[in-house]
Specification:
This is Amidase. This protein has 483 residues and is an alpha/beta fold. The protein contains 14 helices and 15 strands.
Length: 483
Amino acid sequence: MEWNLATAEILAAALRAGEVTSVELTDEAIARIEREDEAINAICVPDFDRARAAARGADQARARGEDRPLLGIPVTVKESYNIAGLPTTWGIPPHRNYIPAEDAVQVSRLKAAGAVVLGKTNVPLRLQDVQSFNEIYGTTNNPWDHSRTPGGSSGGSAAALASGFGALSIGSDIAGSLRTPAHFCGVFAHKPTLGLAAPRGMVPPLAPPLPAEPDLAVVGPMARSARDLTLLLDVMAGPDPLTLGVAHRVTLPPARHERLRDFRVLILEEHPLIATGSAVRAALNRVADVLVEGGARVERHSPLVPDLTEGAMLYTQLHFSSAAARLPVEVYEQLRSHAAGLGADDKSLDAARLRGTVSSHREWIEANGGRELHRHGWRKVFAEFDAVVCPITPTPAFPHDHNPDSMERRIDIDGVEYPYWDQLVWAGVATMPGLPATAVPTGRSPEGLPVGVQLIGPMFEDRTPLRLAELLEEELGGFQAPK
């Protein structure tokens, strides 16, 4: 059997049955990486010696009768997570030699669950791109077409999964950084409800790994099947043991339904601020057809949906305001001057990004109040529907574009150019209110590229979009390996 492309669920069953050992799985994964990753460049920090030692330890533990959720399963970790003894750079050249002293919380949870960490996966500079390239580790290519990006910022993890380099990976998401790479590479990912999984230790180099909860950002699982997402989410979920974990434990409610015909689903195809490309429209229609054929209630419109334009503007302000504190004073003052020169009638997303970057605390409080109103609006949506299906980005994976001035980049949507960063608006639909969202592959574009959609669910009801993802996977075929 080709173990490298098997799901974690299949590997766990094979390990329990004695059909294969963790050492064998790990050696096969390492051999595949050494043979094929030169062309993909997904694994930027290999840790093969320690992986082999961990695999031996997993086999010994199983021989003693132990059984843990991920015991002996090879996995990868996004470069931005601290792993003791390995560099954490976020692609920032001056920090190429920074090595943290302790593991991030989620790395500790992986290891406690018995996972074998093969190494770290590539990211964009400071995790701030829809691509994955930096001066330290170079460019990660999409396994389906090496001239295209695998997405970002968890692009190395998605490319690794599609290539058979480990059965699972962990990433992070504030602007689609889990969902977009999954969509571009034909794998699965889940952006958990905001606050569900502790992020401590997923911090820039030199930053202390404090138990802080960053606004909008989450950490989450990536896999080659929906059931594997649930397996890994159960390992990751839970508050930080230094804060809420002192008094709280997580018990997620079960999925609202188990059968496709019981689901009530809203399909959102149009966004007022950006076009939806034909390949993504086709993917949405495939999903809608499967839902209808399965007996689900499917609607294309609802007056309950909060205003998507207002939501995008709130998301943009909240997202970009977080960058201001890290800017040099002279850069911040220059941006303030540019923002002051914007016309009052300039309602573009570019203007919203600039205004957000230099927004005052008062303005942030106002935006946060708007977010709470939108959250309440989404509660009304999910009283009527169980899930919302919509694009992740407007297009499949696009060609590499390393223009250092990202404001000059453009995204081509069926022959019409849009500002590069405008493609983030669909990611913000779930991110701004903190909703869970599962990325599901749906098939291929006419050019043969993977195309996915996101299934958005109610807050802390993560199992509902995950269960719907499982049911759609059964009908749509799920993961397919690149040819």
